[in-house]
């Protein structure tokens, strides 16, 4: 069973109700959705326990570019780091490593993570602050990398940058806030990425997908799944997309996003599916600022005290690449707040 399907089935079972069938997008008043956001503690705890037991869903699982899924540092030495020097040393070494980040590590720039690494926070207090992680350089690829269970704060540039043709990356159960530029940017021909169960807050430019309007080398790349993330009061870019197709935005919780939810530009193809928007005046834009229009298909989303999404054209189906199940969008606030962020998985 896929992660999304397992959580939906578990929540429905504990709540004593069947999972509703998929429906067309609806626009409802806030009161109509109150029960979904106030699920019992037992349901929330069970949902959180379930997400900890599953692996990646989406593009990080696809067999492509010489890799069958994303395994990170599996099979390599397990090390624990507590300083910036140790972190930079191990993430830059050749070969697989499982790197456990313990406590708060202050860095002052971007540290390059090279291929076949798992960077995993220990417990609920692992933090990287002041700088960020860059997956790959022009000479050392950042393929097959996993980043989980880490709090990223106050980065001087991006908190995490997936770049320079990095592929097969899984970024899961992290907490991002207060960076200078993007919290999580994916660009420069990177591909086959899953971004799941993260909490983003206290920031404006959240997720960029695609380097610039002029960087057409991204066409045919940047295939990313964003699922079960919590965009908690962040302003914009959830994500802002150029050129990529398909981009699968699945079962995310958008709350109080001041500027907009998602922007599809420069002929990108984005499928918006099973998401929950609360107090978001502009859930989806087709084209944004000086960037030309993209394409958006939306289905089975909820818009509570929110505007009407813009849509256009058709998009390649993610099922062309992988199987998945959509959670009932009405359950998304409870499921996501229970399961997203750090300290929810046993690392």
Automatic annotation (TrEMBL):
GO terms for molecular function: pectate lyase activity. Residues 1-24 form the signal peptide. InterPro entries: PbH1, Pec_lyase, Pectin_lyas_fold, Pectin_lyase_fold/virulence, PEL. This is Pectate trisaccharide-lyase. GO terms for biological process: polysaccharide catabolic process. Its main location: secreted. Pfam families: Pectate_lyase_4. One of its GO terms (cellular component) is extracellular region. Keywords: Carbohydrate metabolism, Lyase, Polysaccharide degradation, Secreted, Signal. It is found in: Secreted. The gene is pelA_2. Residues 74-283 form the Pectate lyase domain. Belongs to the polysaccharide lyase 1 family.
């Amino acid at each position: 069973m896929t992660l999304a399907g397992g959580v939906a089935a578990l929540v429905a079972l504990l709540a004593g109700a069947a999972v509703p069938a998929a429906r067309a997008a609806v626009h409802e008043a806030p009161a109509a959705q109150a029960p979904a956001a106030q699920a019992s503690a037992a349901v929330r705890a069970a949902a959180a326990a379930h997400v900890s037991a599953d692996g990646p869903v989406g593009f990080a699982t696809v067999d492509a570019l010489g890799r069958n899924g994303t395994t990170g540092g599996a099979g390599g030495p397990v090390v624990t780091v507590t300083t910036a020097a140790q972190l930079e040393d191990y993430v830059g070494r050749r070969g697989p490593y499982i790197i456990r980040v313990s406590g708060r590590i202050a860095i002052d720039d971007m540290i390059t993570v090279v291929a076949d690494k798992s960077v995993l926070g220990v417990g609920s207090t692992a933090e990287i602050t002041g700088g960020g992680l860059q997956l790959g350089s022009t000479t050392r690829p950042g393929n097959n990398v996993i980043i989980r269970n880490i709090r990223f704060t106050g980065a001087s540039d991006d908190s995490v940058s997936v770049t320079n043709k990095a592929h097969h990356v899984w970024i899961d159960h992290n907490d991002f806030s207060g960076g200078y530029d993007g919290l999580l940017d994916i660009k420069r021909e990177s591909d086959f990425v899953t971004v799941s169960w993260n909490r983003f807050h206290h920031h404006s430019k959240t997720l960029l997908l695609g380097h610039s309007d002029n960087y057409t080398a991204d066409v045919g790349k940047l295939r990313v799944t964003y699922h079960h993330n919590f965009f908690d009061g962040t302003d914009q870019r959830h994500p802002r997309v150029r050129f990529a197709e398909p981009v699968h935005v699945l079962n995310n919780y958008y709350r109080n996003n001041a500027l907009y939810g998602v922007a599809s530009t420069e002929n990108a193809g984005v499928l918006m599916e099973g998401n929950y928007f609360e107090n978001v005046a502009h859930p989806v834009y087709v084209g944004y600022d000086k960037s030309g229009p993209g394409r958006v298909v939306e289905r089975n989303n909820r818009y509570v005290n929110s505007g009407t999404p813009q849509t256009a054209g058709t998009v390649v189906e993610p099922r062309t690449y992988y199987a998945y199940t959509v959670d009932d969008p009405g359950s998304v606030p409870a499921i996501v707040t229970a399961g997203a962020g750090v300290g929810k998985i046993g690392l």
